Fold each of these.
Amino acid sequence: MKCPECQEVVALVSRFLDRDLPDDICERIRDHLTRCPSCVEFVNGVRKSIELCHACRYTDPPRPLPPPEREQLWQAYQKALAARRRAMEARRRELESRSAGDRGH
Amino acid sequence: MLEFLPTASNEPHHGSYWATGPPVTHGNLPCYHNTTVAADTATETELARRLLAGERGAFDEFVASYRPRLFQYTYLMCGHREDAEEVVQETLLKVFEKLDQLREPEHLKAWVYRIARNACLMKRRKSTFAPAQELSLDELVPETQQTFAERNVEIADRTRLPEEAAIYNQMSQILHRCIERLPPIYRIVLILRDIQELSTRETAEVLDISEDTVKTRLRRARLAVRDQLNHHLLLGKGSA
């Protein structure tokens, strides 16, 4: 892995796999990969470990949400919604009074 | 237009985890994150709007969608199940308490993860489980400086074996250990990008860093994980 092209693959492998490189650089890397088995293996290795990370998302779920904890969240949500409604109502009244004031002038 | 690239030999690779799978090309690679992000964001934005409007079902949908993801994230960040479950509950509670502060529904995911990140930091400060000393990324790189070809590890491709679930489970556990050993600044980027599948922009938003910094840290984290996975597998092979 001493040649500059191999070093470029090592430097850009992450962005290459994310398709986050300009087309010309992508093309250059792909061209190099047709000639360099070590780099193919390297890129495949990184790709495999990313795939493993993706799959890791679906393992080991948390315990089911206990009803008291759900209730705690629900109460916080209801409180936030009530505060939001009050704020929107206050805003509506403010706009109405402004508009009435404009008409009065 | 996109083609398969030739691999090292014309023979199919059987029996090597890292060398197997389709040859490297964008044609057959899943595009990590970019293609799914737009659809994902639209769904998240809609959920945020429904949640803010107090629509029926939005609360349960949000909890069902975010709780497992946040648990995975906090478990990997805290390293302990009990801590993780506490942090998830604290995070969700904060999310609902601060819901009126969510100004832009399209930023729901980044906003939630930002709260989770802060909850993890708080827990870490208080936790007796926090390590006395963090490792640097360089310390994690295996001592043997082998070539990539020498690092080829003979472990079967899980998709080709009947006992794939067991092997896959084992690989997942090894991966968890590798991720847990990463220094926090790299660990968090890897978890957000490659496990939670946040976009670069969302990750930058959660961590309050630039997108370039996200990319740099992600690259280092991915290479460190790959090196560690190889190292683990080589050790396992040696002791087998």
Note: Confidence is low (pLDDT under 50) at residues 1-35, 142-161 of chain B.
Amino acid sequence: MIINLSLAIISALFLVLAIQIETTSEDLWGPKIAPLFLAGTLLILSIVASLGPIIRKGARETDEEVDQENSGEGPVPFFKIALVLILGVFYFFAISVLGYLISTIISLFLILLIFENTNLKKISIIALVGAAIYYLIFIKLLGIFDPGFKILDILRGN
Amino acid sequence: MDILNGFAFLFSSPEALLFVVLGAFVGVVVGALPGLTAAAAIAMLMPISFHLEPLSALAFLYVIGKSGRYGGSIAAILFNTPGTAASAATMQDGFPMTQQGKPKKALRISTVSSVFGDTAGELILIFGAVAIAAVTINFGPPEFFAIYAMAFVIIGSVVGKSVFRGIISTLLGAFVSLMGTDPIAGISRMTVGIYELENGLNLVPLLIGVFVISEIFTRLEPKLLNEISENALSLSKKDEDHFSFVEFIRCLPVMIRSSIMGAFIGIMPGLGSSVACFVAYGEEKRRAKNPEEWGTGIPEGIAAPESANNAVSGPSMIPLLTLGVPGSTIAAILIGVFVIHGIQVGPSIFNNQPDLIFGLFAAGLLGIACYGVIGYFGAPMIGRLINLVPSQYIYPFIFMTAFIAAYSARQSAFDVLIALLFGVVGYVMRRFDFSAAAFVIAFVLAKGAEEALRQSVLLADSGYLIFFERPVALAFLALGLLVFASRIYSLSRKKQATAD
């Protein structure tokens, strides 16, 4: 039920986006036709799925609904997922401020902690060695752009 | 013989040869890691391939796809945890054989069957694709749109457990792919003011999010954190019982039948290795004189699913190479590599890039031989190594690799955020049994489908009725509806049988 309602809301947003697509007088439907069809179909299907249990109110849940609501096993590790997402956003900003190597060392150390590795000495060494390997492969070997260590420039106001 | 030219082209490039061997090794190891699929490995390593020559890049990822399917059987046999969904049926007899103290024998049956099935599939690809391409080269936009539409309907209805959720996944994947500048009118669409979306969503971070980061989230679930170490059996036991020649001859008809079944399933868009392995296992068990022994650790119970799931690999490339329509997740990813290297995929590829395409086929055959050797002699050791390193150490590195890969594809920090966002999307899809494969395939197909639709209408005098005036287009649309209807019918019968 919750997932179907969420889908209906997302589909409605998609439909609004599709309606807002600008078209020219020569081609009124061209750029709109596929997004409108997809968003409209999504909305109809998700509304039908959301209303299904309400229409059959009083009746016991069907196997399909039970299956749908109970999909996935065990509790969702919301806290850890949130930590990983925060770490991801941190890495996103850290790369441009601290550079590739330092931000990778910190992020690798933190993700090892999130995965319940408690031996700090061991994971510090793993993070250092791992980040060095990543640096060698991606920056030195493949030539990926490294924004560099800019924190000093930022602190100096440059 | 074009394939001999392909071998000559492949052997003229030491870099390509090196990446074939490397791909075979990486695929086996990643496939053996529970939860990580060949598609995830390819998604992570795709940015590296941008720095390579086209043949090296394609051969590397194509061979990872092949060896990754095989690698899944290592975890299934040794840890009772399928490395990939394609090896789930292998557990039925593979793990009981390990429990009997014959892990090496089980692994060797799996290796021989995989090599047999994969080689059969590759030969079907080599000889079948050229013949089909000779016909499809005459197709125009209406036929192509009909094929896309058929693929959407088939993938949406057969990939997942539920038709409803499969169709929703397909629609979602198709919709998000249309964000960005419209390819025909040049109008900016649905970018919500984000400049980075002007060129649309990039495939690499989306794949990394859906396949890799969502798997990381899944691995954070308490029951999975220590999975391997809990399930692992002692591999140090002496295992003198080898896969004998007599047993091989006994398994040969099973391998032949299962390979044909796998190859046929591989050609159908959306039906992949995970379907093939169960179909072959079920069919061989039904045919067997000793069905009661299946599930207790018999060689045929390993040979059937492993031949079938690997036979899917080659034929699943046929829709991609003959129609430009990827029929599987790996083919959908490979289309991105073709595009990055400026190669137009479709039936004309056999005329325009014969060296490259037959070189790729040759790389496939060489890759099969490589993973066969690695698996035959090294699978127990790979299993032992995976068992030695706890998943708490493996998955943080996979997370970092995924992150760096997402960044390095276009050296864009925005792509890192996209990977995270689609990691959440992928995790929600997993929890509620939506189909990530259908989502990704639809994402890749949608732009081509939209272009074919609009070109058809622009070219026709009769507007949208053009699809009903072209018999081939009509046949493809009818086939799609037929598959959809039969899937609904079979599901309703299954539900009724369960209720009774």
Note: Chain B touches chain A through 60 residues (CB under 8 Å).
